[in-house]
């Protein structure tokens, strides 16, 4: 898989060969760009003249960071996105509060690095994070701060026989906005507060081959699930850096613009709208490595990464009540279509408060 000369996609072919430890594709549609060649030389041969890297050996921290810089995605928000990402530091420094069950009247101001957050498990849901208590603060912080936004990087061995390295790129949003649906011929129906919750963690995972540093595929998280996309189907710009689309309000990731309806089908579903805009985050320009597995050189993890309680309160709206409000504007078969959608709403968005990256199953396991 190599970059085409127009930098719009990676391409692949069954007729390929290796030369000098690098992978080439001679098809007429593909040409090896000088940028990719230099990337491989720097990543694979840096300091390796006296100690060549054996096939399938783990990558060093320096190699992994260089690979991330080479492929670092551009995160594009929807043109109408209201709830932008921010850094965790900005979120905490601008009034985010820690609540404890039974002591709700005495919330704790969180330190910028989360040093005063509780450690260890919280099976009873005793703690949770929320927006500032005053309305002005809640409104301001919920809309995020794209200038402060940074990517949080987690390196881990790929699960496929040690031949890959996974690079997880996590982004934080102070707030997940309300859902919108398409119901038959009505293109856009607001679902009230459905889908809203404090704190939203989204990520992509770059799977690269250890032997040559080639980007093989990318996982895009989407609400409670996600999908793997082959590198040949990604959109690229600025050389080998791919585009990561974030859906309007919900921030589900995707490799291309467009609309996907999540739900019962037949013209009924929750809208996931993706499009480019001038609201973009260059993850390669502002990032922090927060964890790296299988290395002798340990990463100093930020305190907030070990926080295992909820990053937001349990669902603060009644789905049935929100749907009753929507029904007032629908008649006949439109209401019947809405009934089908209601059945999947809590399945898509859940009812519990969101968790942080390290608590999620895909932090250490394979992503499906």
From TrEMBL:
A Pfam family annotated for this UniProt entry: Vps62
Name of this protein: Uncharacterized protein
Lineage: Eukaryota, Viridiplantae, Streptophyta, Embryophyta, Tracheophyta
């Amino acid at each position: 898989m190599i970059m085409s000369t127009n930098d719009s996609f990676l391409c692949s072919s069954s007729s390929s060969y290796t030369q000098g430890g690098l992978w080439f594709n001679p098809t007429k549609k593909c040409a090896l760009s000088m940028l990719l060649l230099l990337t491989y030389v720097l990543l694979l041969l840096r300091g390796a003249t006296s100690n060549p890297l054996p096939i399938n050996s783990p990558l060093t921290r320096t190699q992994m960071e260089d690979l991330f810089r080479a492929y670092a995605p551009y995160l594009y928000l929807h043109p109408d996105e209201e709830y932008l990402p921010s850094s965790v530091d900005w979120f905490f420094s601008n009034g985010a509060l820690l609540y404890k069950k039974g002591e709700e009247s005495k919330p704790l101001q969180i330190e910028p690095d989360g040093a005063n957050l509780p450690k260890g498990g919280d099976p009873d849901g005793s703690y949770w994070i929320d927006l500032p208590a005053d309305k002005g603060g809640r409104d301001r912080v919920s809309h995020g701060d794209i200038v402060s936004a940074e990517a949080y990087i987690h390196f881990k061995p790929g699960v496929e026989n040690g031949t890959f390295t996974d690079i997880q790129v996590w982004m934080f949003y102070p707030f997940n906005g309300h859902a919108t649906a398409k119901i038959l011929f009505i293109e856009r129906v607001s679902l009230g507060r459905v889908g809203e919750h404090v704190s939203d963690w989204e990520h992509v995972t770059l799977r690269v081959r250890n032997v040559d540093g080639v980007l093989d595929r990318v996982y895009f998280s989407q609400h409670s699930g996600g999908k793997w996309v082959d590198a040949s189907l990604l959109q690229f710009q600025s050389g080998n850096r791919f585009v990561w689309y974030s859906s309007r309000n919900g921030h589900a990731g995707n490799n291309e613009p467009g609309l996907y309806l999540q739900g019962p089908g037949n013209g009924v579903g929750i809208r996931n709208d993706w499009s480019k805009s001038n609201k973009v985050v260059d993850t390669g320009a502002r990032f922090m490595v927060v964890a790296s597995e299988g290395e002798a050189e340990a990463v100093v993890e930020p305190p907030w990464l070990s926080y295992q309680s909820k990053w937001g309160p349990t669902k603060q709206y009644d789905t049935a009540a929100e749907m009753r409000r929507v029904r007032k504007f629908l008649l006949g078969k439109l209401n019947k279509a809405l009934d089908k959608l209601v059945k999947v709403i809590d399945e898509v968005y859940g009812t519990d408060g969101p968790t942080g990256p390290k608590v999620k199953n895909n932090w250490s396991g394979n992503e499906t």
